[in-house]
Amino acid sequence: MNITILSFAIVIIFLFVVIESVRRGILETKYSLLWILTCIIMAILSIGTTLLNSLAELLGIFYAPSLLFLFGLLFSLIIIFDLTRRVSQLNHKLVTLTQDFTLLKQKLSEQDKIDNEGSQE
Q: How many CB atoms are closer than 10 A to CB 118?
């Protein structure tokens, strides 16, 4: 089997897995857009050997499939960075929510204490 066909088949299978995950609700649509974009670009580069060879020649890369590997690695880094950024935002929201909950719980406890003292008098 030719490596071009194999890489294209792998990308298409991965694209199908991403779309199926979105359809089943396992993966949210906003998170899948970057994956779908990555799959489309990788599919175009893996099937379009003349485009890949032209880009490799333009960038001064001797072995064109290494450019495909480079793009895959760069997209993976972008996706990892995006996910790390989203996890950091969620962590910040969780800390804020926990602090707000603790303050509200403390106010409720103080209010109950004041109400109990008022009812005893």
A: 8
Q: What tens digit of pLDDT does each residue of 24-83 get?
A: 999 888 888 888 998 998 888 888 888 888 888 998 988 888 888 888 899 889 989 988
> What does the block give as tokens for 29?
């649509």
How many angstroms separate the CA atoms of 30 and 22, rounded? 10
Contact 32, 22 (CB under 8 A): yes
Tens digit of each residue's pLDDT (9 = 90 or more) over 78-102: 989 988 999 999 999 999 999 999 9
**Two tokens, residue 63:** 């072995």
Q: Compute the distance between CA of residue 63 and CA of residue 67 in angstroms, rounded to an integer.
A: 7
Q: What letter represents residue 6's amino acid? A: L
Sign of the dihedral defined by the CA atoms of residues 30, 41, 68, 71, in that order: negative
